[in-house]
Amino acid sequence: MTRTLLLVAGVYGVVGVALGAFGAHALRGRIGPDRADRLETGVRYLFFSLPGLLAVAWLSTDCEGGLFEAVGGWAFGLGILLFSGSLVALALTGRRGWGAVTPIGGVLLIVGWLSVVAIAILLPTGGVLSESGLYPAC
Q1: Integer Cα distance of 80 and 128 in angstroms
Q2: What is the pTM of this model?
Q3: 94 - beta bridge partners?
Q4: What is the pLDDT of residues 55-70, one digit of tens each?
Q5: Vertex 69 angle, CA 66 and 70, to 5°
Q6: Which residues contact residue 18 at a Cβ distance below 8 angstroms, ignoring those fewer than 6 apart?
Q7: Among 95, 84, 97, which residue's Cα sits nearest to residue 39?
């Protein structure tokens, strides 16, 4: 799961940078300020969510198969796609129907962050990092 989560995080990072540049340069003056704000919010929340996805990937290195790691990975992966993706689609197309998808993605992002909290609570109390200092002790 670690490789998959890192791959998804990397792809989302590339997409976020590309969308940000596209919005700032190619779309400047071509879409209204309301749609530009939606695009910016979608890209911003994509980047706000990436640390959570990376945390779940990092924590899953020694904790393979953990329930909260799996839930967190799926929740962040789908949450970013649905939340940020729907805002970007709304900004690019102007179709308000995309707005109905956004709250579903938002709930999934909250579930992802709650998974990070649950993982942190369940970590052994002897210390968060293993002897190598690179991976969590599970």
Answers
A1: 27
A2: 0.82
A3: none
A4: 888 877 655 557 888 8
A5: 85
A6: none
A7: 84
